[in-house]
Amino acid sequence: MPELTVGRMAKLYRMNRSSLYEAVAKGRVSAGLNGKGQQVIDLSEMLRVFGEAPGATQQNPTPDPAASPTPSPGALEPLLAELRLLREEQQATREENRLLREEMQNLRETMLRIEHKPDAVPPPAAVAHLAWWKRLWS
C-alpha cells in the first residue's frame, strides 16, 4: 500500500497532524522515514488503526442503460458527413504537399545546373601572344 507523509495522511483522515504525531509517539501507529527524511505512514497501518478514511468510500453504481441513451443514427449523420469532408481535405492537402516537394526538388536541380561552371582553360590566343615576344628577342 502507498506510504503518505503525516501531513497528507492527516488531511486524508481529516484530523490534526499533532494528533497523528501523538499516535505515532505512543506507538498506536507505526511510521517510518522516506528518502527525504520525512515521517511516512503506510495506508494499511492507518486502515488498521482508524478504519476507512472519511469520504474515501465513493460509490460507483452501475450505470443505468436508460439514463444514458444511445444517440440516434440521424444525430450522427452530420458528424459523419463532416468527418468525410475532413478526410477529403486532408487527402487534398497531402497531395498538394507532395506536388510542392516535387517542384522544390526540380528547382534545386535547375539551380545546380545553372551554377555549374566547367574548369577554365586559358584561351589559345594568350599563349600564342607570349610565344611571339619570345621569338622577337631571341
Tell me what the structure shows:
The chain has 138 residues and is mainly alpha-helical. It is 59% helix and 7% strand. It has helices at residues 6-12, 17-26, 43-50, 73-115, 124-137, and strands spanning 3-5, 32-33, 39-42. Strands 1-3-2 form a three-stranded antiparallel sheet. Helix 1 crosses helix 2 (17-26). The longest helix is centred in the C-terminal third of the chain and has 43 residues, at 73-115.
User: Strand content of the residues, in percent?
Assistant: 5-15%
Structural class: mainly alpha
Q: How many individual β-strands? A: 3
Low-confidence stretches: none
Number of helices: 5
What is the topology, as strand order, of the major beta sheet?
1-3-2
| Average pLDDT taken over every residue | 82
Estimate percent helicity.
Answer: 55-70%
Largest sheet: 3 strands, antiparallel
Distance separating the two termini? 109 Å
- Spatial extent as radius of gyration: 42 Å
Secondary-structure element order, N to C: EHHEEHHH
